[in-house]
Design a protein that fits this description.
Structural class: mainly alpha
Largest sheet: 2 strands, antiparallel
GO molecular function: transcription cis-regulatory region binding
Strand order of the largest sheet: 1-2
Protein name: Transcription factor MYB35 isoform X1
Domain HTH myb-type: 9-65, 66-116
Strand content: under 5%
InterPro entries: Homeodomain-like_sf (IPR009057), Myb_dom (IPR017930), Myb_TF_plants (IPR015495), SANT/Myb (IPR001005)
Helix content: 40-55%
Oligomer: single chain
Low-confidence stretches: 142-358, 368-379
Order of helices and strands: HHHHHHEEHHHHHEHHHHHEHHHH
Main location: nucleus
Number of strands: 4
Number of helices: 20
DNA sequence: AAAATCTCCAACCGCACCCGT
DNA sequence: CACGGGTGCGGTTGGAGATTT
């Protein structure tokens, strides 16, 4: 039994607002102020749902809103905050005067996300696709099975190369991203001699948490919407996804957001030296609201159980989902972090947990030699 | 010029939380 | 403590306008 609708949807107008309707809202708010939106339609003479009125006001009519395009500084701030706290649009919007969460969300989805993808950055994890791909390949052994070349060939036959030359940096793009996806793949995977394609990457849904949550979504995975999360700083589960529950990996140590943020050279500089400007403590203070408190937990005190660094976390997630892959010995992180920009932006380290998994992988191979046959297929 | 496709964003939806009763 | 109305939030959709074919 769900919650009853806030109004009779069949009898209220929906869709785009007219100037007349806007004027009624503005007139009502100027006379009565904001409050009890469910009664606003009736009092203002509108045939709209109260929720719709509130949305129209907060997202469009509020006098303090900016309607011009986002400035490069705003773009950079959104990216940094998204890396730090994920798709907490309302929190991000609070740091952008005159912008609503809807503005920020739309701008992210239409511009910034695509821009990052073009530059070879996974917009969910903020890691280079090449690193993700390399990790995945090295752990699951894709490159050993022959499927890599097969996939590359098929994808390259279907898509022209010019797709990969689109990552031309503009002056509005943040300076912290320098390399195209193609460059990164060449750099991180010397064995890959051809440009790759989105189709090819799409076959390995490492950044699609809906289809296959191979990699931990550091933000949405925090049980921030859970009532209990606001009262505890330690998760009882290593990770939990609201919509896609992933199998658990036994935790061996803890990871804190504050350490993660402060270890990030880009974010920590802002965080430490301009704390007043960002002022997460104030913004995320538990005294403000439960949402703030939950986000505070995410940022400052929420402990995410992990086997080491955040990179290990991502890595372990992929390991956990690739039990039967053909693992290579190296985890690929150390040797693949030779790009100065990304080495500065993304730190990594080896993991005994990963080694353990790889040992087990090798053990499986020794016990089941057919697995090493490139022609072996599960289907 | 027309049709097809793409981009963008306003608006909607459903869920969860807050808070008064 | 339970309930229910109000609100906040993030994800998604629909359609208008722009662009390409």
């Amino acid at each position: 039994m769900g919650r009853p609708p806030c109004c009779d949807k069949s009898n209220v107008k929906r869709g785009l607002w007219t100037p007349e309707e806007d004027a009624k809202i503005l007139a009502y708010v100027s006379n009565h102020g904001i409050g009890n939106w469910t009664s606003v339609p009736k009092k203002a003479g509108l045939n709209r749902c109260g929720k719709s009125c509130r949305l129209r006001w907060t997202n469009y009519l509020r006098p303090d809103l900016k309607h011009e395009r986002f400035a490069p500084e705003e773009e950079e701030l959104i990216i940094k905050l998204h890396k730090a706290i994920g798709s907490r649009w309302s929190l991000i919007a609070k740091k952008l005067p005159g912008r609503t969460d809807n503005d920020v969300k739309n701008y992210w989805n239409t511009k910034l996300r695509k821009m990052l993808q073009k530059m070879g950055i996974d917009p969910v994890t903020h890691k280079p696709f090449s690193q993700i791909f390399s990790d995945f390949g090295n752990i699951s052994g894709i490159s050993n099975t022959g499927n890599l070349n097969k996939s590359l060939n098929s994808s390259l036959m279907s898509k022209p190369d010019h797709q990969f030359s689109s990552a031309i940096l503009t002056t509005t793009e943040p300076s912290c991203f320098k390399k195209t996806m193609e460059e990164q793949v060449q750099e991180y995977n010397p064995t890959v001699t051809h440009p790759t394609s989105w189709d090819f990457l799409a076959q390995f849904p490492v950044h699609d948490t809906k289809q296959s949550p191979l990699f931990f979504n550091e933000v949405s995975s925090c049980p921030s919407s859970s009532p209990s999360s606001s009262s505890t700083s330690t998760f009882t589960q290593p990770y939990s996804c609201q919509k896609s529950q992933a199998p658990l990996i036994t935790p061996t140590c803890t990871f804190t957001w504050s350490e993660f943020l402060l270890s990030d050279p880009v974010f920590s500089a802002e965080f430490q030296h301009q704390q007043e400007q960002y002022d997460f403590d104030e913004m995320l203070s538990p005294t403000n609201s439960s949402t703030m408190a939950m986000a505070h937990n995410d940022l400052s005190s929420c402990n995410i159980t992990s086997t080491g660094s955040d990179d290990d976390w991502y890595l372990n997630r992929s390991v956990g989902r690739s039990t039967y892959g053909h693992g290579t010995v190296n985890n690929g992180l150390e040797e693949n972090n030779n790009a100065a920009d990304h080495a500065a932006y993304y730190s990594s380290s080896a993991s005994s947990f990963v080694d353990g998994i790889l040992d087990r992988d090798r053990e499986l191979h020794s016990q089941f030699p057919p697995l090493l046959d490139p022609s072996f297929d599960y289907y």
